[in-house]
Amino acid sequence: MPAPSRASPSVTKFRAHSDAFSVEPSIRAQAGRWLKEEVVKAPWVPVLHPSPLRMKGLGVFTLLGHPLFWWLWGRALPQPYENLALRLLTAALGLLLMSPRIFNDPASRLSGQVFSAVIWLELPFLFSWMYLCNGGNSVWLASVAAMILTYYFVTDWRIATLGLLLAAVGARALFELVGPAAPPIPTPVALANTVVIAFCVSMGMLLGVSSANLRREHLAHTLATMGIMAHELRTPLATMALIGDAMRGAADTCPPTSRGTLEKLAERLHMLVRNMNHQIDMQIANARLLRLPGHKDAISAADLVRSTVFNYPFRSSRERESVRLQVRRDFQFAGSEALFGQVLDNLLKNALRSMAAAGTLLQPGDVQIEVDAAGKHGRIRVADRGVGIDPQLQPRIFEPFFSTNRGTGHGLGLAFSHRVVQRSGGHIRVESEPGRGATFTIELPLLA
């Protein structure tokens, strides 16, 4: 039997290099996709799990915690360096988190900015400063380690990583300029401390990335399921439309006394199909919460509102007449016309649903839509005279899957609207009292 052939060492080496060359681009491509999805495209979330209670709780802890730790490290268990003025100044930042404008809307852009600034100052910056002023002793090494994990727990992992880097550089620069006299940290201690801190940072990043990815995957799977279910409803609706056509055809062969009844029933059936198809379109659009297009058009606010109202599938002429549009001053803004049309659809649907829940006969002007501009911002207001929204629920209405209408609401419309408005550099807010209706205001920067 002939001996099996063997490749020469040069051929084997060439094959190994070829395999490595074919695998390496794939690894680079996967890494590039991961960086793009996780670091660039994924939205930053300054406040993880935002809620009024969480915001106020952090404010109270900031206000009371720093004086307590001043007493602990300055009196009960004295450390080389403590500063009462610095502690009181940091504690006062807690009042910002306890401000009604901040904790009432914890998911807003302003709340996110204030939260990020306060948490950065009281966690990575202050702790880095205290670590340096205390010579990197064991108490402040443990404190910094706990701070790092806490920082990654309360905010987006990218914000936390950037914040830690900026705090370390800023605190070091300030310490060199105006820091108190502190013993130098021995090199072996500095190296050991660096290893501990690096371990905490790496674990914080790992947990932050995995948690953020898990949240987005759960949301994406749920939204995809809702979109599929909405698509599946098209089939029975198409059958209903065919039945309506058959009823109209049959009406031609019926006696005059029955013809009118059949035609009315067929028309009502077709109107129901149109309305349901419109609702399906809305739900499919809302289910694209995480996949909003990036392109922007120049949009006229007045034209957008007029088109939305004209195309809305009102269930009756009285419902259509209840909507009043007032254009005080038109303005242009940058955004997606299709997405903003969906935003106004959501607000108009909610207003009409609120009026229906109030149980009163619709009157002209029960739903008011106003377009106006002042300074550098334009405003679109949608106001109704419906049942209103409970003050305890208002801070959560822009969260995905949270709905004040537990019977029929899915909680995506306002979350979608909030995301679309934010993508255009604006914000949306609500003012409401139970029994007195609700007013949703969209503020957008004017197109230069």
TrEMBL record:
The keyword Transmembrane helix applies. Keywords: ATP-binding, Kinase, Membrane, Nucleotide-binding, Phosphoprotein, Transferase, Transmembrane, Transmembrane helix, Two-component regulatory system. The chain crosses the membrane at residues 57-73, 85-103, 115-132, 138-154, 159-178, 190-209. The keyword Calcium does not apply. Residues 228-448 form the Histidine kinase domain. Coiled coil: none annotated. GO terms for molecular function: ATP binding; phosphorelay response regulator activity; phosphorelay sensor kinase activity; protein kinase activator activity. It catalyses: ATP + protein L-histidine = ADP + protein N-phospho-L-histidine. Its EC number is 2.7.13.3. InterPro entries: BphY/WalK/GraS-like, HATPase_C_sf, HATPase_dom, His_kinase_dom, HisK_dim/P_dom, HisK_dim/P_sf, Sig_transdc_His_kin-like_C. This is histidine kinase. It comes from Ramlibacter tataouinensis (strain ATCC BAA-407 / DSM 14655 / LMG 21543 / TTB310).
